Amino acid sequence: MVVAVAVFAATVLHAAILCSAGMTSSFVRSPQKSVDMPLDSDVFKAPPGYNAPQQVHITQGDHVGEAVIVSWVTVEEPGSSIVQYWAENTSHKHKAEGKFNKYKFYNYTSGYIHHCTIRKLQHDTKYYYEVGVGSSARTFWFTTPPKVGPDAPYTFGVIGDLGQTYDSNITLTHYEKNPNKGQTVLYVGDLSYADNYPFHDNVRWDTWARFVERSVAYQPWIWTAGNHEIDFVPEIGETKPFKPYTNRYRVPYKASNSTAPFWYSVKRASAYIIVLSSYSAYGKYTPQYQWLEDELPKVNRSETPWLIVLMHSPWYNSNTYHYMEGETMRVMYEPWFVKYKVDVVFAGHVHAYERSERVSNIAYNIINGLCSPVSDQSAPVYITIGDGGNIEGLANNLTEPQPKYSAYREASFGHATFSIKNRTHSYYSWHRNQDGYAVEADSLWFFNRFWHQIDDSTTAA
């Protein structure tokens, strides 16, 4: 009898979950405007010492996690482009030599921007590295990922549209203090918001890089280009898109046979991460289209079960802010995402949080009228997380009624973590800035689309 009651209760609960509508959070954030931190804020301070390296940041430097790109800036003179590095508990130091570059943007001239790739690193090893010379040298560390394999556990942080406001600082602090420690950040675009200032003031690229150094000098951030990285301003003579971004942030795009740094892929632990560009040509016959068409069949789900896609402009968005901006890219690529069973897509752009159910909208052929999203267990979950805290503030104009594909939405700043446990299960959680560091405002167990394709929906799609 007890067993029968338990079975009946579980059945009722399951039915309740399937029949419920999506949730618009009842949490109401106070409507104060986001305010930039002043230029003399502690988080923007340059390190002491003559020509001391600043704006230090790292990202993955190859396709499989055995290399790291180290980048930094010196101001007074070029100095050294050498990185010294050594594994923990060893005394032997290795050296790698990089190169430096400078660029001009309107009336701004950058410092000396150094990029150095450290190669042939051991997996799952803590390394220390040193940049700069003499008394101004600075030392940092990072831990390489485990060897690529189907059951390698790994935790990613997810942040987008950060900017450099007081709210941005809270977001980064929450991420750093999250007890579910992220080991690498999946960054979905819009970094400094320098283009919001007169003449796209590139000083704000410098301040932003000094602000985030406390995280990105110690763990890789996987970069995605957003619209605020375009910096196309012909009225002041700046006609080369993405100039500040490409000079400052390097990615290993050639390792995945990409022809441009705006779309590329990396393997990390048990994840295959594909980065796409919402602001580069993506139509048929374009380089990005041809690359993605060739790239997706290469993903070996027996080696990297988790297929994650990063982009900036979301495809499913029930906010009036940036509504439908990702639609043409969705029409081009969504059938591939379903065919290859992408697990999750992270996007930014909309300054709010939203998680979808597994849906697709690929049946429509102009005349059949089948133009509404439907539940599709081969489709990814789409997560919009452009809620880092930037100067433009929150996007709180949610469409009503809430679409059936939308599982949870809220206009608050925050960050997320995606924690891979093994080839079948990952745990995802989103954290709003107003809560304690361990509080999960939204969470979900992901069941892998290749190895464990059971229904992980939380509402009726």
Can you give a write-up of this model?
The chain is α+β, with helices and mostly antiparallel strands and 461 residues long. The protein has six helices and 26 strands. The chain has an eight-stranded mixed sheet, with no helix packed on it. Helix 5 links the parallel strand 16 and strand 17. The N terminus is likely disordered.
Secondary structure elements and pairings:
Elements: H1 2-19, E1 23-24, E2 54-60, E3 68-74, E4 82-87, E5 94-97, E6 99-101, E7 104-105, E8 108-109, E9 112-118, E10 126-131, E11 138-143, E12 154-159, H2 166-177, E13 184-187, H3 203-216, E14 221-222, H4 243-248, E15 264-268, E16 271-275, H5 287-295, E17 306-310, H6 327-339, E18 344-347, E19 353-356, E20 359-360, E21 374-375, E22 381-385, E23 406-410, E24 414-420, E25 425-432, E26 442-447
Morphology call? globular
Taken as a percent bin, the fraction of beta residues is 25-35%
Mean pLDDT: 93
Radius of gyration: 22 Å
